[in-house]
Fold:
Amino acid sequence: MQILDHNLVFPHPSSAPDHGLLAIGGDLSVERLLLAYQSGIFPWYSEGDPICWWSPDPRMVFDLSSDQPMRISKSLKQSQRNKGYLIKENTCFKDVMHHCALVKRRDEDGTWINDDFISSYTRLHELGHAKSIEVFKNDKLVGGLYGIDLSEKKIFCGESMFTLATDASKIALLHLVNTLKSKGYHFIDAQLYNDHLHSLGAIEIDREVFLSYL
Structure:
């Protein structure tokens, strides 16, 4: 594990142990964040801790080359038809991040989406690198997700999602899956395994396979 300074450089992701912790320190500048994502690395840390940079093996992804990259349940189909949701893109990025920061996650104390995180990713959004999908009902934001769009590599790096209404985050994810699949994207990067993502169809692949697309 490397301690980062002001220089814009990371160790090669393949040098990280399987759990993925590659480096500590540095900052959340636009330049460093873009270098990280383009290298298969992402920041994740608790409030008050130094910035930790990760590249786990295996990597969790939605494989967009698959015939069915996301599992669509009967209840999700019903929500698509009957809930009256309206899907938008990039209309309230910062609001999506704020909602994601409030999500209670199992085995996590607090959130990594702090004020510095929101400020840096909002700047990435303003520059066209970070995108959001928003789900509205009756003009109220009820679900969404955000992430980094590596359009030149055909990979979308998903960061977080939230829901305030039945299946709203799944509706946002399904919209993203269908949109990116139609554009020939390879993966939605879901970073680390969890049961919820697995239930939606995400799979694990070797880190070296993931890095080969970058």
